[in-house]
Design a protein that fits this description.
heterodimer; A: 303 residues; Rossmann fold; five-stranded parallel β-sheet; 17 strands; 25% helix; B: 258 residues; alpha/beta; binds flavin-adenine dinucleotide; binds adenosine monophosphate
Chain lengths: 303, 258
């Protein structure tokens, strides 16, 4: 068995998630080769074959060209699996490669099973086992699902040539919005999710945060709807936090939210849905209406 | 210009899910369905572009699925789509992303759509594949996960959302396909007059057999709840009691209350 691992490189740096691919391949017990559109100055600590294209010439986001480079490596290596991280790079590129090969794609794999792969569905509440019906398969692995593996060594490099071009023009990066609250330093965070119902209820969550001497966080829909500033957002596209206490109010527990807060020391979730996936990481799941429970808790704490 | 937006109807995700008889997907009994959230952003963006371009632009909404999906189609029409295609497929949930994409592609082929909008992923299956696969099958340029969209004279300028809140700005020439991320816009609520107007708009029904010629590339072996992990406790009951219990836990297990 052989896997071709597609590493990631952004703004001149090799991304750490690249080692999660090696962690996955290790669990699969497969031979590996790797491909990165990156730089010779940022080589992974990996002793296998590395197909390397120069990001300065190819562009960091140039999916049509990256696809061609990957297909070239696929032809040389004849892998059983082509594996990406399920990230903005991976989910953009994987279906292009899969379609070109007419290979099955299995997205956001969280575990390896006998002859198949486990993926989440229904907003992480349920799981599916999926099996490819094609001889080659393209996989994307969920960020954080496979512990990283850094084998060490230096790769045997095979250069891939390629330059610019393509129907798409990458103009550049825009930095993340400036943060006016640094949730990373907060010891207590009380976060508002869509379950709070409406913008008018935000002060109720704020009041609990204040009573506990902490900061208010938020899930993404609450930010997107304009109820709370983006600087309060917790998750993959917000801040990563690890306070002593995290209270999730009306938050379902989508993977992108969990990625930002699951390392918190103690997690309390308030949700009217007993099956909400936040229950998987919560030390305490309070099954209640958040608008009844939170004011009552605040009153007790404040006293 | 011709625009297409693809929508999927998904169950309310606060529901309880049970496996169907085959054990490979959820049982639909007792579930309430609505438009996939990501697709609402796609519809809104398509409607905004339709309004900006005005006369001579036609916006079609497409959905593959059983008769219930007509509800989601009607909502899109009330939001401002001009007409609709309902690809009738009672067995759509059993098809893999490759097949769903191929159905959309065979519908769109030769119709000259300048821009196709899809959601970045469906909330129930969440494969994030269908949009990009359609673009590959039709040979369109494509970008994904957009949180910003602008169109001018044959060029789309899109902002892709990357990890940690960084964005990537991309320009692409039409014909093109974009997959829409949450926060791209604020989807409108259909107004009563627009709901009434939508009743007169045409919904073309097409049997899926007319468009499907691909076999599936992957099969689902089972659908099940996650293995329970972690020793978290679940508290239920009267609010006053719950508050007492949580206070006790905070005092016992954390240092935040003294
Ligand atoms: C690429 C990408 C990046 C993302 N980045 C982030 C990110 O950084 N951060 C983030 O948070 N999300 C992110 N998301 C979105 C994520 O997938 C979820 O959609 C989001 O986290 C859901 O937010 P929520 O839990 O507040 O809302 P929902 O999923 O709608 O959940 C609401 C919850 O509230 C409960 N509820 C409803 N009413 C009540 C009540 N009265 N009392 C108690 N409970 C109630 C419900 O049971 C439900 O569990 C991202 C998504 C993608 C695709
Ligand atoms: N049955 C369907 N009918 C129409 N469009 C669909 C269907 N399934 C998926 N899509 C589109 O493809 C996107 C991605 O879906 P998925 O690949 O399942 O995550 C969705 O947001 C929709 O825009």
């Amino acid at each position: 068995m052989k896997t071709l691992l597609i590493g990631e490189y952004r703004e001149g740096k090799l991304l750490d998630s690249t080692y999660e691919l090696l962690g996955f391949a290790g669990q699969l017990g497969s031979e590996t080769a790797m491909l990165i559109v990156g730089s010779e100055n940022q080589l992974p600590a990996y002793g296998g074959t590395l197909y390397l294209a120069d990001a300065a010439a190819c562009g960091e986001y140039n999916p049509d060209l990256h696809k061609k480079l990957i297909l070239e490596a696929v032809q040389q290596e004849n892998p059983d699996y082509i594996v990406f991280v399920h990230s903005s790079y991976g989910w953009d590129l994987a279906p292009r490669v899969a379609a070109s090969l007419k290979a099955a794609q299995i997205s956001e794999v969280i575990a390896i099973q006998d002859g198949g792969f486990e993926v989440g569905c229904c907003n992480a509440k349920m799981r599916r086992s999926v099996k490819p019906a094609t001889s080659k398969a393209v996989l994307t692995i969920q960020a954080g699902a496979f512990p990283p593996l850094q084998p060490g060594g230096s790769p045997t490099i095979r250069k891939l040539a390629g330059d610019g071009g393509g129907p798409l023009e990458f103009v550049g990066y825009e930095p993340a919005e400036k943060k006016d609250v640094d949730l990373g330093k907060a010891e207590i965070i009380v976060s508002a999710g869509r379950g709070i119902g409406k913008k008018d209820n935000v002060p109720v969550i704020q009041a609990l945060a204040k009573a506990l001497g902490g900061e208010m966080g938020a899930s993404r829909p609450v930010v997107d709807a304009g109820w709370v500033e983006h600087s309060h957002q917790v998750g993959t596209t917000g801040q990563t936090v690890s306070p002593k206490l995290y209270i999730a109010c009306g938050i379902s527990g989508a993977i992108q939210h969990l990625a930002g807060m699951k390392k918190s020391d103690f997690i309390i979730a308030i949700n009217k849905d007993k099956d909400a996936p936040i229950g998987e990481v919560a030390d305490v799941l309070v099954v209640a209406d958040v608008m009844q429970f939170v004011p009552a808790l605040t009153a007790k704490v404040a006293r | 210009m011709k625009l297409l937006v693809c929508i999927k109807q998904v169950p309310d995700l606060e529901s309880r899910f049970k496996a169907n008889a085959e054990g490979v997907w959820y049982n639909e009994t007792d579930l309430a369905f609505r438009m996939n959230e990501y697709d609402e952003y796609a519809v809104e963006q398509a409607v905004q572009l339709r309004e900006k371009l005005g006369e001579g632009t036609e916006l079609t909404v497409l959905s593959i699925g059983p008769d219930r999906v007509v509800e989601a189609i009607k909502k899109s029409l009330a939001m401002g789509c001009d007409n609709a295609a309902h690809i009738q497929d009672p067995a759509a949930s059993g098809k893999d992303p490759w097949q769903i994409a191929s159905i959309i592609s065979s519908y769109a082929k030769g119709k000259g759509f300048d821009i196709i909008f899809t959601g970045m992923q469906s909330q129930d299956r969440g494969s994030a594949q269908v949009g990009v696969t359609v673009a590959e099958q039709l040979g369109l340029s494509c970008t994904t996960t957009i949180v910003g969209f602008d169109y001018d004279n044959g060029t789309i300028t899109a902002k892709r959302e990357l990890e940690g809140g960084i964005k990537g700005v991309v320009k692409l020439k039409t014909p093109a396909l974009v997959t829409c991320q949450m926060g791209l816009n604020i989807p409108r609520y259909p107004t009563l007059p627009n709901i009434m107007k939508a009743k007169k708009k045409e919904i073309v029904a097409i049997p899926v057999a007319d468009l499907l010629s691909e076999e599936s590339l992957a099969t689902t072996a089972s659908f099940h709840p996650p293995a329970k992990k972690g020793g978290g406790i679940v508290l239920e009951g009267d609010v006053a009691d719950l508050v007492e219990k949580v206070i006790a836990i905070l005092k016992d297990k954390t240092t935040v209350l003294r």
